[in-house]
Amino acid sequence: MFTMICPVCEKSVNDMQGLALHFRSGSIHGDGKHASWISAEQIEHGISDSDLSDVLIRIFRPEESLIRWARMEFIAKFYAHPHPFMEAMQKPTVPVLLGYVIEHRFFLKNWIRTLSMVIHSTTSDDAFEYEVENVATEYIGLNGKPSHLELLLRMGEALGMSRKRIMEYSPLPETSQAIEVWYGISNRYSWIDTMGAMHVLELVADRTLVDDGSPIHYFNPEILKGSDYPEAVKNFLMEGYEADVGHAGEALKIVQAATMDDLTTRSIMLRSMDAFYVYLNARMRRARMLEASWGE
Ligand SMILES: [Zn+2]
């Protein structure tokens, strides 16, 4: 007997059967959230089965290791039918990159807040060291190298938007909504689940997803070689391209070894990936807003 939580509303259930029952009662009561989540998952995975228990087992795939599952789930959600942001990043326009800069500043700040909870409560020296270094790399800068935040801001400046202007924006509602999910996870769940929720997102820039069937990479790698984009754009993208492979892998290894409740960890990772999807929509909407006001 194990317990797990619903990936949509976080209700605790006893097992996969209990989760199927919970989804069924949600559908009976006309709750659109659960029904639309399941049908989106079925489309992402190409599952035509109609038995809820079977569908849930094919989503959670308990027989796969946590890391393998996370990688395949990330590909299904973001790359099998590429998210519009990933499509746009194959040949990004200035508004797309500036949309990225404006919204990502809020993501990074929340990244630090959320993962500081791991530093605060972990009992693992490996997790502690990992997250301290992570905070430094993302926000402060390490070994004489500028932080990811600094590289992000420099990308914005190179594309013609002043730092002052970037800082004047408030996050779009989709960004705030996603941040609320992540911050809430760090408030209510263990350091292990929090680490899983956040570091699964670093798979986004993992080059090796292509080896596992992802049809495209996060961005077209030719951008790094050519001269179509300013150096600051290449420097920012390069950082993720080179660093995140080993980086995300290492964090998820810590999570896989430490979790006592694998299915709850998977549910929380699903919630986090769903929030990330919404957040990527914000980058696209910001890009469209910039495009519409261009030349005004
Ligand atoms: Zn639920």
From TrEMBL:
UniProt protein name: Thiaminase-2/PQQC domain-containing protein
Keyword Oxidoreductase: yes
The keyword Transferase is assigned to this record: no
GO molecular function: oxidoreductase activity
Keywords tagged on the record: Oxidoreductase
Domain Thiaminase-2/PQQC residues, every copy: 69-286
Stretch forming the signal peptide: none
Originating organism: Thermoplasma acidophilum (strain ATCC 25905 / DSM 1728 / JCM 9062 / NBRC 15155 / AMRC-C165)
